[in-house]
Amino acid sequence: CTGNSMFDISHTPVSVTIAHMAELIDSVAEANHQVLGPIINDVTQFHSRAIPTISVHDYLERVAKFVCLENDSLLAVLVYIDRITRAQIHRPALAPSPFNIHRMALAAIVVAHKFNSDIFFNNARYSKVGGIPLVEMNQLELELLFLAKFDLKVDIAELQQLGEWLVTRSRAVVPRQPPFCLLTQYYEDTAHHIQFPTPLLDPSSGTAHGLVPHLDLAPYTLRPSPQHNSYDSKSLRHTVHVTQPRFHVPPHKQSAQASTVELTTPSSLNTAYQPSTP
User: Fold this and answer.
1) What is the pTM for the complete model shown?
2) Which letter, b or e, does each residue of 120-129 get, where b requires 16 or more Cβ atoms within 10 Å of its Cβ?
3) What is the maximum alpha-carbon separation in the chain?
4) For site-directed labelling of 186, which of 27, 47, 176, 244 has its Cα 20 to 30 A away?
């Protein structure tokens, strides 16, 4: 612990960190909801049809318990969500709100845990713990990675400083221009630019807490597919033709008919990849 700090990233109980995280997330999400209202013309992969019945605090507690999260991964979640909101400040649908914060937090947890820990779970467990289908969990992970531009590193000293601020921050609401980001007040209070996550996680600490109880997070909202998006005209979209290899392929190894598989990137990029015709 540094000096008389009330937070130590190695020793402060995870439950304490979660309590302060949930309070911050709830306040920012509710502020965005009050000012922006429900976003109906630009829903994202993170949006639910209805606000989930499980609170942010209980959701974070559940996920942290069953995937053995430590403070560094939890604090990195705040960084990732804040960075995404700032990078997409022109798109209010990606600002934290009661409709999207659960899935956004879950995706950030998956990415932070995999990046910060030598030992982590497969997406089947994260999806079960988070209460969503595995296919959706895979898509949310990709969505967040592309929005974050795969820039995931943060110095441990930054995470320590963020934790200290989190447990001692002023709860006063300061009027700002929406959409509101999670760490705006942190930047203003510390006059310091946060980086991206590096971890202090003991991979041997903690074990799985038995069977994961069932959870159904509010179903994801109906939304247009990446190929037919409502904001398609405003986004960059292109088709990449995959050229055939220059080396010779023996006839007996060639497919009997052309492949029709189409790979799509996250809808945040709205890019379709299609193989060229042989």
Assistant:
1) 0.69
2) bbebebbbbb
3) 73
4) 47
pLDDT in tens, 199-250: 333 333 334 455 778 888 877 665 544 443 343 433 333 333 333 444 444 5
Amino acid identity, residue 185? Q
pLDDT in tens, 76-113: 999 999 999 988 888 888 999 999 999 999 999 999 99
Residue 5's pLDDT band, with cuts at 50, 70 and 90, is: low
**Residue length of the chain:** 278
Query: What b/e readout covers 80-119, taking b as 16+ CB neighbours within 10 angstroms?
Result: bbbbbbbebeebbbbbbbbbbbbbbbbbbbbbbbbbbbee
Residue 42, Cβ density class (10 Å: 0-12 exposed, 13-18 middle, ≥19 buried): middle
Pairing of strands 263-264, 239-242: unpaired
Distance CA 46, CA 143 (A): 9
* Sequence-separated (6 or more) residues with CB below 8 Å from residue 106: 59, 63, 126, 130, 132, 137, 140
Residue 220 φ/ψ, nearest 5 degrees: -65, 150
